[in-house]
Amino acid sequence: MNLILRPRLARLSRKCPRQFSTQAPESLETQDDWTNFQQTRSSLKTLMDSLTRYGSHQTSNWSMRNPLHKPAKDATLSALLASGAHFGHASSRMNPNFMPYAYGTRAGITLIDLDHTLPLLRRAAKLVRAITANDGQIVFIGTRPDLRPVVQKAAFRLGEQGFHVGERWLPGTLTNKWQMFGHDTVRSKRIIPDLVILLNPIQNMNAIQECALTNVPTIGIIDSNVDPRIVMYPIPANDESPRTAEIIAGVLSIAGREGIALRQAEEARMRLAVDTAWEDFPATEEAVSEFEKKEEQEDTKPLDGEESFDY
Amino acid sequence: MLRSQVFAVLRRPLFYRFVSTTRSFIPPSQLNHVGESRPRRSGVQELDAALMQEIADEVEAEEEDLDEIDEKPKPHPESPSFYTGRASYYDNLIELQNAISSTRGTLKRLHLLPLPEFARKSLIPMPTVWKTPREMTVDFETTITISRYRKVIALLNELNEYLRIATTAGYEEIADKISGIVTIFESGKKDAILTRGIRKPIELDRCGRSYTSGRRKTSTARVWMIPVKESPQEEDVDVEEVFGLPQSQSKAPAVNVSVSTILINNFPIVEYFPQPVDRERLVRPLKIAGVLGKYNIFTLVRGGGTTGQSGAIAHGIAKGIFAHEPETGTVLRKAKLLRRDPRMVERKKTGLAKARKAYTWVKR
């Protein structure tokens, strides 16, 4: 019996040691078998973990942060370079309007000047922060399979004010909203967003066109073969790199989250001020009627800089 | 009436809405005002009836607008997938993906993932039947095309695998949570579909008889089988002793052979099937199962000819043997005796003499 098992064991030893054991049972029948199976695995793991510190000594404690789940608040030049944000498309395809953002050519590729990218990214982040602080709606559009989780996460960070489009943008979402969403929804909800962020603008020209028609500001990642004027706030970077998109979407969504926090802090402060104010001035009937009279007078008074005409 | 409305418009400054100091600026997208903002006209235009009517309409709209300008802006859409146009589909997809990733993390921490081959073979089989694309269209409120259906099914199958692992390993809370999600997508006809094709076990009646039916070509046979009762052994008559003959040296050991009867339409087998081919075909299941003299068989057969009837009875006998002794199942199945032979007489086609036979080809 052992002679038959030995050649099989030799093959198995190439697999992860966690996956085989010299006393591996043929099959797990009872609950106890499963418990034993789990226990052997967990004990092997603890053994391995305890023995690792006796191996080679690692001097650096650096570990790469997950750009999707834990993005950085500010993008650094080194992070953008590491993600390949400076790689543009072929120089033969360069859009002449992209010239201000191009660093040069190497190996037939246009390199994007990241010294322009960083301030433009910061400007876009400031815009996002201001919009969310004023209760604005922001839509993240990234219509590739690798961009789908990025836009989902970014929208999730903005809570109620964040939206995402991970698959094809349906033409007419904004310009044909009555047919798209129905009369009840359009009358009761805000349909036109206050900002649209495009991670791959060339594939979403329909969305850009609709935003232009409905006066929605846009931010977009602009590559070297794209005219930067199609969006209001271009961010020149590589649109094909998912890591670059993660960094940029991370920066913008964190700025948005800050805006929401600012607004909530402001609201809390105002609520507190109103509550404390009412303590000093209780709402008696006289005070309320006086207040209402004042309001009426202000409404009927002519505004500054206007002459009152009598016909 | 129109005149007064026109003068009301002319009395106001052009950019009334944005000069007000009492009201804060609210962008047009957040207002309840639904009509498109009209472009301001430049230059002098003659006041004709059409233009006056337009101005009157605008005044009405603006008046309504001004009344509502102090109200709160409209609420946000609830779903973050609102702008995809298929909110509930994408939301459900995201929910499934989140459930899968969280369950995967939990099972990895419990050392149940990745599962080696021998453990995977020991998992409890949990076959499920998912809802049809039509049923899912109703649930998701969007047309479920085949590609979208495949994506959903892939996620559901993965979730089902995790359910199997959790149930087999005995983690009930995890299993309950997963099954709560999975049952939403399971078809209502799941039990009916899973039990399809499973034959009802044939029960023996109070006398120990099995009643089965068999078919072949256009014949049907009803077969009753009962085990032969071993009557008490009669003393073998020693022939040599009776006739006073000298005793033979070696006596062959007595062999007990049970004898069974086969009756077809109340005729004995030899009378009903004079040809040995048909008799062989009939008796074959008994030979293969090794129960040749064990059962008494009574059959009623109708329809068809000799081959059909003998085949039908053989089918019924095989089923009857399986009812009495389920261990013979593998042997009978290997010999394809439990299978209803689907071969039927092929129909004659137009332009041919018979089903396949063509008329003689003529050159001219």
UniProtKB/TrEMBL annotation, chain A:
Residues 284-311 are annotated as: Disordered. Residues 290-304 have a biased composition (Basic and acidic residues). Pfam families: Ribosomal_S2. One of its GO terms (biological process) is translation. SUPFAM superfamilies: Ribosomal protein S2. Keywords: Ribonucleoprotein, Ribosomal protein. GO terms for molecular function: structural constituent of ribosome. PROSITE patterns: RIBOSOMAL_S2_1, RIBOSOMAL_S2_2. The keyword Ribonucleoprotein applies. The keyword Nucleus does not apply. One of its GO terms (cellular component) is mitochondrial small ribosomal subunit. InterPro entries: Ribosomal_uS2, Ribosomal_uS2_bac/mit/plastid, Ribosomal_uS2_CS, Ribosomal_uS2_flav_dom_sf. Belongs to the universal ribosomal protein uS2 family. PANTHER family: 30S RIBOSOMAL PROTEIN S2 PROKARYOTIC AND ORGANELLAR, SMALL RIBOSOMAL SUBUNIT PROTEIN US2M. This is Ribosomal protein S2, flavodoxin-like domain-containing protein. It comes from Rhodocollybia butyracea.
Automatic annotation (TrEMBL), chain B:
GO terms for molecular function: RNA binding; structural constituent of ribosome. Residues 61-81 are annotated as: Disordered. The keyword Ribosomal protein applies. It comes from the Eukaryota. Keywords: Ribonucleoprotein, Ribosomal protein. Residues 61-70 have a biased composition (Acidic residues). GO terms for cellular component: mitochondrial small ribosomal subunit. One of its GO terms (biological process) is translation. The keyword Cell division does not apply. Belongs to the universal ribosomal protein uS9 family. This is SSU ribosomal protein S9P.
